[in-house]
Amino acid sequence: MALLVVESNMTSNKKIIVLCFLFKSVKSNILPFEVMERENNEISDWQGLVNKPVYSSDKQEVGIVTAIQPQHIVVSFGPITTDKYLIPKSSVKVVERGIIYLNENTKFVEDNYQFE
Amino acid sequence: MEKTSINNQSESSTSTSTTLSSKLKTAYETFLQEAATLFPKVDQKLLLNMLQFETTYQDWEGSVMLKIIYPASISDIDAKKDWIYRKYQRVSTIEENRTLRFKAIRMYIEEIEKVLKEDPTIEYITGSATMTPSDAYAT
């Protein structure tokens, strides 16, 4: 992409500006995932998980994160009669490519975390 | 010379406003952290809404649709329902065998604090605050 935009007849100043702009736009798309993903359950930006999908350990979709609370994340599933889950932050195993994986399987999640 | 002076003034004004806005943001973030530390079991959105109504409208009646969530392992949710009835004269509905939902009035932050102190088994409190008391049977 940079090769298409940076033409050979451009002055060096122009090239620098174009490259800076491209770097900034690419960085802004990648950074949210970089910030969120940490090993050993160390997530620095919990608010960045809002609207991200949540999967159980057996790879079933639990829902979408709707709110971050001091001790829990709130996950909702379904468009009309929404099922809501109150999931302890300690249950988050890992965040990979914007998907949150839990330590527990679907049955455990439905039996223990659903509250509405 | 004049131009330089104007530019300097403009720069100084921008930097002042940036300082002011960053001060305000820092204060707000500190406030949010404080709210989360003091009321970790309460939905922060509900808490802030109640705080806003309480502080803005002196005559706010404390109209809150409250959901009290107990751990999934709770065995005596009916006893909790009775406790709510004795305390607030409201019949709550039980959802998912762990959530009590009822419409309360005069439910201020102080009252939430009391509820949490009286029953430490509560896992989480959520719901929504409204400006005026609405139909008792509406959701």
Keywords:
heterodimer, A: 116 residues, alpha+beta, six-stranded mixed β-sheet, 3 helices, B: 139 residues, Alpha-Beta Plaits, 2 domains, four-stranded antiparallel β-sheet, 4 helices, 4 strands, elongated
How would you explain this protein's 3D organization?
The complex is a heterodimer of chains A (about 120) and B (about 140). By secondary structure, chain A is of the alpha+beta class. Chain A has helices spanning about 1-5, 10-35, 105-110; strands at about 55, 60-70, 70-75, 85-90, 90-95, 100. Chain A has a six-stranded mixed β-sheet, with helices on one face. In chain A, strand 1 and strand 2 form a beta hairpin. The relative contact order of chain A is 0.15. Chain B is α+β, with helices and mostly antiparallel strands and about 140 residues long. Chain B folds into two domains: about 1-40; about 40-135, 2-Layer Sandwich (Alpha-Beta Plaits). Chain B is elongated and about 70 Å long. In chain B, about 20% of the residues are buried. The interface between A and B is medium-sized, with 13 and 19 residues.
